[in-house]
Amino acid sequence: MKTKTETKNKRKIETKTKKQETTEKLVKELYEKYPYPSRDFFSKERAKNYVKWVSKIFGKTVDFWKGKQILELGCGTGELAIGLSLSGANVTAIDFSKTSIKKAKQNAKNLGAKVNFLEKNILETNLNKKFDVVIALGSLHHTINAKKGFEIGVNHLKNEGTIIVGLYNKYSRARHRVKRIILRLIAGNNIEKRIEVGEKLFKGNKSKAWLADKYGQVHESYHSINEINQWFKEQKIKFIASNPKYKYPIIDEIKWLIFRKNAFFVMIGKNDAAHSPPN
Ligand SMILES: C[S@@+](CC[C@H](N)C(=O)[O-])C[C@H]1O[C@@H](n2cnc3c(N)ncnc32)[C@H](O)[C@@H]1O
């Protein structure tokens, strides 16, 4: 027979799961309606510039990607995936928003890129294939379990493969976190109302997709350098580079907040499992 505490705990877990389900549904709904980033002027040059920006973080050039097998998690409307394909990579890119994938496919067609776009939930992905590079920029923090998303990424990584994750920072996104509290108080989970209020109170004059991503978004998680280094350690990923660079975690992250930069940070590591002692 179950004790009262066990029953209470079980109910608690079930409630949480229901809450997570609702959250995931709302996030999906947002990106179905407002695929991100949906750039108006998307060109080969812009796609390649995106690739250059990512490459530079870990001291590579666009040539690095030639012939590589790449997996992108949460590709949105496909700009990076397309840029990587145009740089000679074989790219598989997934997103759970049907409209984003549709737009991504159209974008790829327009620019003559070949990408394997798949409509999938990151947290339920198992492709039975290993990749040279796994990339998740700006997507894991919108899943209900960013760490699990990262681990799924690592499961798809070859030995010596590279993983690139871009996440909202726990410290330097503090200003936006305050705005989100205000939005929640005024508009709750009503996406359209959140966008309207956000545009009025904070920053307007941006694309609808941008406003939706910033203010309509009901779920984002926040992460720190120390936390990601811990994720790396647990998965035997060796740190290679970050953007921005840092010397002292927390102090530097607070500096990013003060100097109003880098609410979003990128960490890059290499799969070192083959050289690590077993746990
Ligand atoms: C802010 S957009 C980033 C898009 C793209 N990576 C970029 O940097 O432009 C976040 C994307 O993650 C996707 N996403 C969020 N949670 C997801 C999940 N659980 N499974 C698959 N895609 C997800 C959303 O649909 C959305 O397209």
TrEMBL record:
Keyword set, alphabetical order: Methyltransferase, S-adenosyl-L-methionine, Transferase
Origin superkingdom: Archaea
GO molecular function terms listed in the Swiss-Prot or TrEMBL record: methyltransferase activity
Pfam (any one): Methyltransf_31
One GO-annotated biological process of the protein: methylation
InterPro entries documented for this protein: Methyltranfer_dom, SAM-dependent_MTases_sf
SUPFAM superfamilies according to UniProt: S-adenosyl-L-methionine-dependent methyltransferases
Chain segments carrying region Disordered: 1-21
Ranges where the Methyltransferase domain occurs: 66-169
UniProt cross-references to PANTHER family, sorted A to Z: METHYLTRANSFERASE (PTHR43464), UBIQUINONE BIOSYNTHESIS O-METHYLTRANSFERASE, MITOCHONDRIAL (PTHR43464:SF19)
Name this protein carries in UniProt: Class I SAM-dependent methyltransferase
Species in which this protein is naturally found: Candidatus Iainarchaeum sp
